[in-house]
Structures are given as C-alpha cells and as structure tokens.
Amino acid sequence: MVMHEAVLLLFLLAGWHRVLALPLVRDVAVDLGQNLTLSCAQDDVLLKSGNTSGVMWIREGREASRLKVEPNGALQLMNVSLDDAGIYSCTMDEDTDALKTRINVFVRSPPPALQNVWVKPSTILANVLWEVGGTGGYPIIDFTAEYRLKTPSNEDPEDWKPIVPTHIPPNSRQIDVYHLEPNTTYSFRVWATNQLGRGEIVEVEGHTHHSVEELELARHLLDGAENFDTRVWVAAVGIVMGTLLILGLGTCYLLYRECKAPSQLEEQEVIELVPNIILNPGFFDERTERVPQDENSNNQTTTRLNNNTVTQPRRL
Q1: Sheet holding 126-131, edge to edge
Q2: If 107 and its partner were Cys, which of 34, 85, 95, 305 is the partner (CB 3.0–4.6 Å)?
Q3: Digit-coded pLDDT (tens) for 43-93
Q4: Residue 98, CA distances (Å) to 12, 19, 40, 66, 187 in order
Q5: Is 289 exposed, middle or buried (0-12, 13-18, 19+ CB in 10 A)?
Q6: pLDDT tens digits for 221-262?
C-alpha cells in the first residue's frame, strides 16, 4: 500500500514539474483583416537573425508550415481571419521541452449573429426578442432592427422599414413593432454593431393574430346564415324604406306650414289696422318734436296734428 502511494506521488510530482515548466500563455488581440507578427522569444528577447534553423511554430498541436516565418524566427500572419485565432507555440527543435513561448491569438471582428432571435406577434404589434452570444472583441454600440411585409416569391419584395428607435441601446434585448396589420405575415431582421461595423444579420418571420373584434362580429353575422330566408330581408328593407318615406313627407309638411304662418299673421295685422285708419285719419301723420326748454322746466314735447296745428305744453 505504501509502495502504491509513493508511485502515485512520483507521477503527480512529474506532472506538476511539466506543467510548471510550460511558459505562460500571452494573449494578443488583432482586428479582422490586419497583419500580425508573433515573435519567438526567451524572456521577451528575440532570437538573433541567422539562428533560426531549429525554429518551429505549432498551432494547437499542428505545424503551421504554411505561415511565413521571418529570418529572426518571428511568425507573420497576413490578412488575419477568424480561423487564425488560437494558441501558437514556438520551439527550437522537435523536443517539446524546448518551448520558448506560447501566444493566444484573439481576432476581433464585428459582432457575431445574435442568438435565439424570435418574434412574439399580437394583433397589430409584435415583440422581437434576441440574446447576445458575443461582442466580437469590442463593446456593442447598439442594435438595429427592421421589418417588411412578406411577399410571394414571384413578386418584388418591399423595402425594409426601420423600427423606432433606429439605434437600440446595447443593454436592450427586445423591441416592439407597432401599426401592423392583423392576420398578416411579416419578416423581421436584427443585428448588433461595434466599432468594426455591422454584425451578421439574423432574419425571422412572424404572423400577426386575427382581430378579436372582427372574429366576434363575423361569428354573430354568420350565426344561422344557412337558415336565413331572403324574404325576411326584403320585408325588413321595405319597412325601413317606408319609415324613411313617411318621415320625409312629415318633414316637408312641417316646413310648408312654417313658411305659410308669417303671411297669415301679416294679413291679420292689416285687417286690425283698417278701423284705426278710418276712425283717425291722422293715425300715421302724428309725430312729436322737441322745443326749447322753458323757464319753468315744463314738458317740452309738442304734438303736431295732421292739420299743422301745434299744441304747446301747459305753462304753470
């Protein structure tokens, strides 16, 4: 039992020795499409030019022979792509114990495609939701979402319409779309943007629901339609039209009476004025006029009759 424990302890010590002998991994970030030079160095000192016969670069256990190695042993990565990301190791010979440096290359790019993008439609609005799977190496500046009516394949598609706000805050994970048509299929697309540009676009579809009011009204209108008698409909239309005709005739009669009423009143006034004119010929000629005020402040109103006789006010 003691022998087994001793052997196990030796294996553990040997494993830890190899782990401690490995150099630390150094992280290097590069933007997509740029060039990158990796140096094979001991304590950050570059190998001297001309002493590169035994230099070999390995990428995650595979020889990177297709990559360009500089005379000083540095590795040149041209027009970096996402496939170039990974851990690169530099050795002086085929002995793995002679590792000089290990570099983790991280390629920064526009944001990757959003994950779990789906649409939760309603009658006249829809809710677009998504999750962020990565930022591409730079913080996300904003999200952008658009929508359009889905058209048949044999027709030209409509232009994409922006969803307000056009710059969705980076902490948002959903956006509402308003003013949609019920029972209609729409296409939605959304993407993220960082300082390197627009990320991959994700497009989904959603179908809005039927209008509840329309369904309820249709259900009531069509209830018993198979047993509907057209004669009932004709009778109902006849009753309505007859009622409208009677109302129209009554309105015309009232307007006629209203127009005749003033003329009858004028005839009655003329008949009443005839006796007054006969009894008092000066009925229309009487008028009053003002005279200057006298010293006793008597009524200065005088009366002029039709025979031009002036009656002065009584003096006190």
Answers
A1: 115-121, 126-131, 174-177
A2: 85
A3: 444 444 445 556 788 887 665 555 677 888 888 898 999 988 989 988 766
A4: 21, 13, 12, 22, 57
A5: exposed
A6: 666 666 667 788 888 899 999 999 999 998 998 888 888 766
Does residue 177 contact residue 125 with C-beta atoms inside 8 Å? yes
> 30: left (phi > 0), else alpha (psi -120 to 50), else beta?
beta
What DSSP string runs through 98-143? Answer: GEEEEEEEEEE-S----EEEEEEE-SS-EEEEEE----TTS---EE
Domain map of the chain by residue range? 2-108, 115-213, 229-270, 280-316
Topology match between the domains 2-108 and 115-213: yes
DSSP state of 193: E
The backbone torsions φ and ψ at residue 149, rounded to the nearest 5 degrees and listed phi first, read -70, 135
Q: What's this model's pTM, rounded to 2 decimal places?
A: 0.57
Q: What 3-state class would DSSP assign to 312?
A: coil
Please tell us whether the domain made up of 2-108 is placed in CATH 2.60.40.10. yes
- Separation between Cα atoms, residue 61 and residue 9, nearest integer Å: 28
How are beta strands 75-77 and 36-38 bridged, if at all? antiparallel
Residue 111 burial (CB < 10 Å; 0-12/13-18/19+)?
A: buried
Reported CATH class of domain 115-213: mainly beta
For residue 123, which amino acid is it?
T
Q: Which residues pair with 166 in a beta bridge?
A: none
Express the helix, strand and coil content of the chain in percent, nearest 5 each.
Answer: 30, 30, 40
